[in-house]
Structures are given as structure tokens and as C-alpha cells.
Write a structure and sequence with these properties.
4 domains, kinase, Helix Hairpins, Beta-Lactamase, 5-stranded mixed sheet, phosphorelay sensor kinase activity, binds adenosine-5'-diphosphate, HATPase_C_sf, transport, 5-stranded antiparallel sheet, 52% helix, alpha+beta, EC 2.7.13.3
Length: 440
Amino acid sequence: MKYNWLGPLLRSLVPPIAAGLLLGLFLDDYGWSLAGGLAAYLAWHLYQLIRLHHWLKAYQPDEPPPDGHGLWGEVFDGLYNIQRRDQRVRGRLQAVIDRVQESTAALQDAVIMLDAEGNLEWWNRAAETLLGLKTPQDSGQPITNLVRHPQFKAYMAQSDFTNALELPSPLNDRLHLQLQITRYGNGEQLMLVRDVTHVRQLEQMRKDFVANVSHELRTPLTVIAGYLEPLLDNADEVNPRWRRPLQQMQQQAERMKHLLDDLLLLARLEASDSLQASQPVAVAPLLQAIVKDAQALSGTNDHRILLDAEPHLVLKGNEAELGSAFSNLVFNAVKYTPAGGEIRIRWWGDRDGAHLSVQDTGIGIESRHLSRLTERFYRVDASRSASTGGTGLGLAIVKHALIHHNGRLEIASEPGKGSLFTCHFPPSQLAARQALGNAS
Ligand code: ADP
């Protein structure tokens, strides 16, 4: 918008000039009168400027500006209005901040704000009850000085916070906390902490229930299988009408036994997050034994099973758990590869650690299933799994056995072409490279 200078200029200059001219008419000296009029006008301006300066210097939020006339009156009023408007906006913002702080303070979950160095900036009441933070003493302290769990230190040291961390509360180790960090602003971190004790208890109850039921079902199953065996051994004495049902009963009893074994193994694997006793495991001979069993499983299907294993690459871990994991992968390759197909097993080490891959030329898996394969009882094709004697627990066992060995499973597959299952172990999981013979 174009500012009209002329109006205010005329309004402020015309009165002193007119007064000077009028005085000049009386005194008969226009020059001095005009100069005197303008000097008085300048003095008045200076006086108004000093009043404004004084008001601004000694400014109090509720103090109105000095009264003024003409242009100065408008300036004083304009400034006052701007200040009042700012005050109102600030008041509204403060009210919003107060409400946010009140509601976060009332949250049951702990909310903690950390600066870019991981020092405490702000936290709510729940952070005091869950983590034992003290207001205001702990302000500015590094959070790792106050929560001293080693897992927490390792979690804070990493840069990827996609996964939440679970750990016992520093105040009470029966409380289980789940921690999640989100970055915001200039590297600041927002930490949310939830009490998940109840969820953990329910999960434990479920695990105990499955383990107990599996255990209790074993005895009656052993009795049934025990009666079936002699009956089928003496098949000639059995009424021919009963032979087929008896055979099926034995097959199903065998399947149930596998299922219970897998459930119990999974329950044992899930009972702890890490390995209890760790020993050097020579993987190459373990794989050789698995290949033999796989060949037997393949039977007349005549799969070509090739093994390429570094014989000196020894892993720290539990041989039984690793054996279950690896055999599940190899047996799956046999089960899901048509007759005559090829299965390649490779065990090798490099800078990233040790790796075991099982590659087959089988039926493959559609990509939409890949992320769910390690879930319990997840099957791509239930009817096919049933015909191959699968329990749907194999890959869940693999996943948990790998977690115990700080490993992870990678799956790549293409329908109709085959699948590649790779287990990766970090260098810290390697025992040693023994100076033995050549790769088998
Ligand atoms: P199952 O006992 O049914 O084999 P798993 O947990 O071992 O259960 O495997 C889950 C599902 O993943 C299987 O039902 C099967 O559909 C698929 N699967 C596993 N391994 C392979 C493979 N090598 N080739 C194709 N599909 C596979």
C-alpha cells in the first residue's frame, strides 16, 4: 500500500509556519518569527521523543503509553496496540504449553526430553516413578548416568532406534519397561517409557501353558504309539479291515510327536533371550551329519545335495540349538524341492562374521509371505505342509535359535525358481579358526 506523505507533512508543518507568519505580522519581522516558530516546534518534537524513550525504557506490560496529540498521539497508540496484541498471542501460546505440559505430566507413560548429547532437559511425573529421575537435581545430567543398565547404554550408543528396548526398571526389577526413542529438531531425542510388566506376565503365562500342555500330552501319546507298534508289527494277526486305520493312526501319532517336540523346543528357546552355556561348535561336521539325514529324507526323490563348508570356522554356541536350526533349513529345502532338484549348503566366514546359506531349486515362496514365515504355524500352503509332515514351527525355531547366537535370518525367494535362506552371525560369535585340513 502506498503511504500518503503529503497529508501528515502538511498537518504537522502548516500550524508552526502559520503561527510564525502570524507572529511576524504582529512583530513586523517575518524571518525571526518563522525561525522562532520552527524552533518551538522542534522543541515540542524533542519533548515527545524523550517521553517515548522514557516509556519504552521503563516499560511495564500494563502501563499505557503517554498521552500525545497529532502524529505523536497516533505513534503512541499504534505501539500500544501492537504490544497488547503480542501480549494476547503470548498468553494464548502459554495456555497451550501449560495444557500440553499438564496432560503429559498426567500420562501413565514416562515422557523424557533429551538434548542432542543425551542430557536430560524435561520429564514428566511418570519418569520419576518408572526410572527414578529426581526433579530438579537430575536436570542436565546424562541419562546414561542415571539408568545404568548395560543394555540401555548399548541402546543409546547406537544410532538406529527403530526397535524398542525392554529392560527391568532401575527402581524395581520386577517392573518391565519398554523404551522407544524418537529423534526430533537438531538431534534432540524424545524417549517414551511404558510399563509392560502385565504384557510380559501374560506372555509368560502363554509360554508356560504351551510348554505344560505339550509336556502333559507326551505321556498319553507315548502310550498310544506304544500299543500301535506291536499291533502293526504283527499285522498278519490283525483284521485286514483295521490295517489301514492303524497305519494312519501311527502316522498321525508320529506327526503329533514331532509337533510336541517342536513346541517343547520352541518353549525352551523362548525361555531366555540369550544363550546360557556357550561352547565351541564345529559347524562343518555338524552340517555333514545333517546332509546325511537330508539324503535319507530325500529317499527316492534323489536330490543333489552339495556341501561347501570352511572346516576351521568354529562358532560359539549350543550345538543342539544350532543343529535344530540348520537341519530345519536343510530339511525344508528337501521338502519343498521337487524330485531331482539341487540343494547347495555353504558355510563361510568373512569380515562381517560367519554365514550359512541353504539354496534350493524348489517351489519358491511369493514375496508377500516372506516377512511372516518365521511366525509360529505360518504356512504358505497348509495342505502342502501337511503332506510334507511340516509342523509350521520349523522357521520359528530357526529364528529363536539364531537370536540366542546373536544371528539373524535372511530369506530370498522366487516362486518357481527356488529359495535362499542365509543365517548371519557377527564376528563376536566366532570361536576360532582352527588349523585343520581343507574344506570338505
Ligand atoms: P513347515 O513345518 O510347514 O515346513 P516352517 O516354519 O519350516 O514350517 O516353514 C514355514 C513355511 O515356509 C512352510 O510351510 C513353507 O510353505 C515355507 N517354506 C519354508 N522353507 C521353504 C523352502 N525351502 N522352499 C519353499 N517354501 C518354504
